Amino acid sequence: MGFITPNLADFDLKEWRSRPYLQRIRPLAQHWAENGFGTPGAVYVLYVLKILGYVLGGLAVTAATPGLGSLGDVASWWTEPIVYQKVVIWTLLYEVLGLGCGSGPLTLRFVPPVCAFLHWLRPGTVRLPPWPGRVPLTRGTRRTAVDVALYAAVIASAVWLLCSPGTAGPVPRENAVGLIEPVRLVPLVVSLALLGLRDKTVFLAARGEHYGLTLLVFFFPFIDMIVGLKLVMLALWWGAATSKLNRHFPFVVAIMISNSPLQRVKWIKRKLYRDFPDDLRPSKLSAFAAHSGTVIEYTVPLVLLFSHGGLTTTAALTIMVVFHLHILSTFPMGVPLEWNVFFVFSAVFLFGHYAEVGVSSLESPLLAALLLVCAVAVPALGNVKPHLVSFLPSMRYYAGNWPTSTWCFRKGTEQKLNAHITKAAGMAKDQLVTLYGEDLADLMLHKGMAWRSMHTHGRALNGLLPRALDDTEAYDLRDGEYVAGGVLGWNFGEGHLHNEQLLEAVQERCGFQEGELRVIVLESQPIQRRHQHYRIMDAATGLIEEGLVDVKEMVARQPWLADGDATIPVHAVDGGPRPAGAQVAAAHE
Predict the structure, then answer these.
(1) Which residues contact 576 (CB under 8 A, 6 or more apart)?
(2) Mean pLDDT across the chain
(3) Mean pLDDT, residues 299-328
(4) For residue 370, what are the contacts with CB-CB under 8 A and spacing of at least 6?
(5) How many CB atoms lie within 10 A of CB 192?
(6) What DSSP string runs through 219-280?
């Protein structure tokens, strides 16, 4: 791996291109197992600088609060309650500008590495309302001046709050600065909610299920606020742990550690798989690491919640800090880096400094009801009926059980995305071609598809290709994240941002002919089921086929699949699957 040049698999490019698609995936998946994405060292330096910018920027804007003190006196004021409020608002602003999750080269953003705010400040770009048929004044998929104004209002409201002083209130006597006056929070809460009803992408980028909920907790009295903030953190940890009670997560752990820039010992990486390089299913070591992490997220936060200081609290805090620093060190795809830094600060601030504030101190029934709805009911619904709730409000985080999709462009038609869709930056392929040329760009995009193929859902998507296409080699295959990132300006593992709704918006602008664009959508696994629902759609004619795939089939397969056994077994839904590939062939006879 060079400082600027990516570490790519060493093979004859011409011979590799001559192979069928599923066999082109094989050497790239094997290369990933030992080298990860092969990211240049300069990219990691960029992310480290970005984390430092987040930390130093947060300290600077917080230190500007009247009465706190200078940056040199951080040790004397970091425990002030208003500090936590300012850090939450700063983090929300950082994310809603697109500087946090879903930014940079590890999310296929190269030139520029961040474009979300450019996209969302530009009229004519694509927006996706969450309930266009139910909420008045939200129909349509074209960003208007109203959407731009609402987005600007969110930014302005956050900046205003960061500049706000504290006001006296019922806070501990040693905290003289007070809290942000609750009425000042109203513009940010209202503008974010209104914008979210017009465009779910921006709301998800702002991490509404976390920072938005936290803003609501700030409206309550001090003691209730501290208890509420602790319960929000507990819900996030437990939600993440619950989402990992599946057969997908060991795959994620193996893939994530393989990509870690700090883990350079190849024999250790090989041990993450059953029989490298021929069997890339996760080994017992990966399964142990996965389940150990789940146990930590269940048990240690509970200890933090009910311990009230002393050695027990210190030990539990140490475990959680190391836990999040480990995640941070792997630079996971999607790069939720600042989010993990925030978790470390939250753990120390809430469960360390305010360890004596226990759950029994909660007095507000309204706050209890709010937390039951947002932190219990919504995640529960999202786990049971994942098609109704984004994996973010469902608190199903880096567990491998995401909705996903593969977009299949008949060769020569992908350029319609640039020709007919207003965007703040070119598609990832165009950016890669500019940096590395056509050959390396193609290889790196295939490496991204190999990453997807190593997950259980990627193996299912590969197995569904023969059902969707008459000839896989006649198409350029793109991950749905790739499409959403370019067309919507942001992506972070949310497959509901590149399902039928985005396909309809793209088709409205591009007018693909039948067979030119096929999309395979795979929904998340419901927690009570052993299968996942899939749909195959044509941009011009709509739904072609839907059915169910068994998770046991996905975990038994290799990322590349054998050519003679490419099609994954499916089960009927609503009359049963129809021969999608045959319909494509008929359309082009």
Answers:
(1) 547
(2) 92
(3) 96
(4) 213, 216, 217, 228
(5) 25
(6) TS-HHHHHHHHHHHHHHHHHHHHHHTSSSSHHHHHHHHHHT-TT---HHHHHTTEEETTTEE
